[in-house]
Amino acid sequence: MYYLCNIEEMKITKELLERYELGQCTEQEATAVSLWLDSTSLSLDGDDEQEADIAEDIIEDLLIEQEMWQHISAYMQESAAKSNIPERSENSNAVKLAKNNDPTVKFAALIAIAASLLIILGMGWWFYPTTASKEHLFNASNSDKAVMLWKEDSFEFTLSKNSSASINLQSGNMAISGDVLFSPKKDIKLYDKHNNTSLDFRQGEVYFISTDPDTSELVVYSKSQLEYLPPILRKHIRKQFHLT
Amino acid sequence: MRLFTGFYPILYVVLASSIIGFGTSCTQTKQQIDSPINFEPAYSLFVSKESVNNFVMIDSTWQQLASFSPPHAGFNREFIQRKGFIYSVNPENDYLIQYRISSMGLQAMDSIKVVNDNIEQYHWKNNSDTLLISNVVHGDIETCSFYEIDTKTFSLIREAQLPIPPAVNDFNILSLGLVRYDNDKLWIAFAYSKMLGHNEYTTLDTMYYRTLDFASLRVLSEQKDPRSTYPGGINTIQTYSGTAENGDFYFTSGPGIAAGNNIEQPSAIFRKKKGSDEVDTTYMVNISAQTGNHAYGFWYVGNGKAIVRGERSDKYTDFSNHHAVYQFEYYLADLANGKLQKLDLPLDKGTRKENVVQVGADLYIAIDDEKENHTVWQYNLESGKITAHLTPDFPIDYQLRLDKLK
């Protein structure tokens, strides 16, 4: 949570980020931006009530966001390099370049505008999950009943005893303990966040999901794949979920 | 001239395509599929591609093929097929449905409500039209449901509970491996398993047999056989037994990881002689001792010979990829001297399959090999000759079943 203190002290603005990427920041500003980028939480709204699981999801989200940022940065640097060509030759700035009738310069200016738009869009995308992650988090656990059913708009979960399931619908990260049945009502792509594997779930299919105790990988079998399992395991699954 | 200059490139393309096509057809002739059926189907393949199942119907000459979809999404390979009819439980409502194979696909004829969709054993009583079905009903205590059905009228003759103990000590998962009617008696082979961990289990090291009076279902005798475990298996998925011309009954055990998972015990062939209520304790063909592996699947093919389908433990890691790796070998077992002869067939995938059909001296074996060929092979028992017989031009991951329909 100490990251939040650093973040709160910083005034990270679009302009600062732009300058950071163009290498025009002071050393102090550059350090502040680097710290901000490396921080495990972007809860700029000061929301410090997130639990460890949610924080983990956000780390994953951040990794994706940073990757996205690197793409934007690469694009920025490329545009900056292009816009630097006339800058060097004419010793001018970007505003003056906009007034230049040279089509190359006009193109460079357009690129710069496009890059700025991309940054703004990127920022929007960046901030969105931090505010939306709470409402996009599905959490369910069953500690005492034989089976429990959770119904959501886009999926259903059936949890056997001592099982839990969580999905960050923003990042698609899924975590399961125990044994669950998952019934998507639409095609969904989710991620086993511990193993960097993506899982495609089809609408209408029923999936048996558990976590391998040795590797902590998610083990997923569709109902139709259950027929490939040893009959005794299949019996065990049927028994757990009262499928007989 | 313009016409000709424009025409020559097309001619070249057509010629080149023909040559390429000819070359391809020489290496692998894929049989075209028609739809709907305009011939009398004699065989059927039940195939799966990315978990979507389909029927491919084949005529008696293996020249004409047609495909159709199963009647509903939950329809899987666990069906019973006889005399042009198919029997399958709809898992949505637990009705056993009788279907007729028609030119449009499977046509539902009638249905009977059963306790669950999990048929473990079916048996045609005296090879008549009376179908015997046994299900294990899971719960805190396992029970066995038994149905006697007249398939001529598709009516239930009898519904009863089989007197099989639900557990032995803490081995509380019951598996019915074989059920067979003989001489007004019902003979049942079974085994008990238990979970060891999250996805791990094992099976008690004993095969149990019970003989019941068929009319009253009273227990007449019981036998415990410690030579192996997990006798037979779910026979809607694969065959594990056969009856010789002299009436002797042969069956296999499956202690390998894909079945009983008590791997120290051998996969083996056992015999119950005609007229006897007991399994012959003097007879055993130890498959594992000869192949160094476990086996699942046994088809009696006449003259004291049987086909055995054996796994290769060096090919898979555990049951998670057991069905997906190319590992299965086929052996011709001589039941008199116990010798196994490996057949010159490509390694097959799929842990359990009902894929061996016999027509006279010819065996047809549907194999999914590592070159992604999904081919029915022909093996002539007299000459020993093995040839690729049919490769349907159809999307296939697994040929789960090959059935002779008449």
Automatic annotation (TrEMBL), chain B:
<dbReference type="InterPro" id="IPR011044">
    <property type="entry name" value="Quino_amine_DH_bsu"/>
</dbReference>
<protein>
    <recommendedName>
        <fullName>DUF4374 domain-containing protein</fullName>
    </recommendedName>
</protein>
